[in-house]
């Protein structure tokens, strides 16, 4: 995974944490769930790219 993609996924994770916390503070289930969804999306992207990196190591 390129550094650029990792930075984007990490930024999305941070954005999701902030949105979830904001939802907790104001009592907004919508913001809480959207924040959690962003975090999950970032986690999936990191996992997929980690698998790609491992496969590339095996193939090389």
Would you summarize the structure shown here?
With 60 residues, the protein is mostly helical. 92% of the residues lie in helices and 0% in strands. α1 runs antiparallel to α2 (29-59).
Descriptive terms for the model:
92% helix; 2 helices; 0% strand; elongated; mainly alpha; 60 residues
User: What is the total tally of β strands?
Assistant: 0
**Assembly form of the protein:** single chain
- CA radius of gyration is 14 Å
| Global mean pLDDT | 93
Output the helix-strand order. Answer: HH
Strand content: under 5%
Low-confidence stretches: none
Number of helices in the DSSP assignment: 2
Name the structural class. Answer: mainly alpha
Termini separation: 15 Å
| Outline | elongated
What share of residues is helical?
over 70%
Major sheet: size, sense and barrel closure? none
Kindly describe this structure.
The protein has 60 residues and is an all-alpha fold. It has helices spanning 3-26, 29-59. The radius of gyration is 14 Å and the shape is elongated.
Topology summary:
Layout: H1 3-26, H2 29-59
Helix pairs in contact: 1-2
